[in-house]
Amino acid sequence: MSDRHDTERPPQAQEHQPGDEHKMMPEPDYMPRYPGSGRLKDKVALITGGDSGIGRATSILFAREGAKIAFVYRDKDEDAEKTRRLIEEEGGKAIAFRGDIGDKSFCDEVVAKTVSEFDRLDVLVNDAGEQHMAEELEEISEAQLTRTFRTNIFGIFFITQAALPHLKKGDAIVNLTSITAYRGQPVLMDYASTKGAILALTRSLSKNLADKGIRVNGVAPGPIWTPLIPASFPPDKVANFGANQPMGRAGQPNEVAPAVLFLACADSSYMTGQVLHPNGGAVVGG
After folding, report:
1. Helix or strand or coil: residue 105?
2. How many domains does the chain have?
3. In the prediction, which pLDDT does 2 show?
4. Taking phi first (over 0 means left), then psi (-120 to 50 degrees means alpha), and beta for anything else, what does residue 178 get?
């Protein structure tokens, strides 16, 4: 893998969440590194936040592994169209849904239309999220707190509630939590709190669904080069993002997507309630 992303990342910022991938310099690595092996052949996967970042990389990888893809995105139409095209270039079928996963009726509609289009649902990946930097707790407004929790945790409840009637024995749910759930983050206190809630939900739901044969696991990335980064931090922080990790760099979305794939497919058939940690060498939860 080239290290151009670590040596040529200029200071940059974006004004709106969740950020535009096509405006990032350089663009993240999202393409899978290896040929597919049919690990999701004939499966249908629903992926939130699928237009960019980890969600895009996961969507493309799943398509390469044989899945049909439904993905949800907030409002970045250009990024979503590119993701759809990349899925189709892998030979996959794709449908995209534009909207807010914090809206329960939207989540119900997404699941209903996915099942109507593809006749089934086998894998749910809860990836969508947002974060907003605040130096002090008092800076976090009620509106920001509500918005962050509604997107990051309410949205997971809503879409998972809609999906569960269609999931069956052998199917999988993969939730994206974060290293911040384990270590905290002093300028992302509300975001880190939602990621802790996702971790607790993953463990709790895995026990609730174990007797039904539906596995629930999580992935807790460290610093990953996605549109959330220039949309969240000042330009100087973006330029050095990830440099404090043991491996000395930020990760790429296509370094996280294989962990999601592992938990989504039968390779992880004896795992539920667990979390994988692609984070550049940080030891957490030990």
Report:
1. helix
2. 1
3. 42
4. beta
Residues 6+ apart with CB under 8 A from 32: 57, 60, 61, 64, 254, 257, 258
What are residue 276's DSSP bridge partners? 219
| Alpha-carbon span 201 to 147, nearest angstrom | 19
Structural domain span for residue 64: 4-274
For residue 274, the Cα-to-chain-centroid distance in whole angstroms is: 16
Cα distance between residue 191 and residue 133, in whole Å: 9
Instruction: List pLDDT tens digits, range 245-266.
Output: 999 999 999 999 999 999 999 9
Residues in contact with 151: Cβ distance below 8 Å, sequence separation at least 6, in sequence order: 100, 101, 102, 128, 129, 130
Bridge partners, 105 (sequence order): none
Residues forming beta bridges with residue 47, ordered by sequence position: 71, 125
Residues 57-91 have pLDDT tens digits of 999 999 999 999 999 999 989 999 999 999 999 99
Domain of 216: which CATH number? 3.40.50.720
Q: Examine residue 122 and state whether it is found in any structural domain, yes or no.
A: yes
List, in sequence order, every beta strand (DSSP E) within the chain.
44-48, 68-73, 94-98, 123-126, 172-176, 215-219, 275-276
**Stated pTM of the model:** 0.93
Catalytic residue check, 191? yes
The answer to the question of residue 283 being in a domain is no
* Spans of the chain below 70 pLDDT: 1-8, 231-232, 286
- Average pLDDT over the chain reads 92
d(CA 202, CA 263): 13
Which of 34, 182, 191, 270 is catalytic? The answer is 191
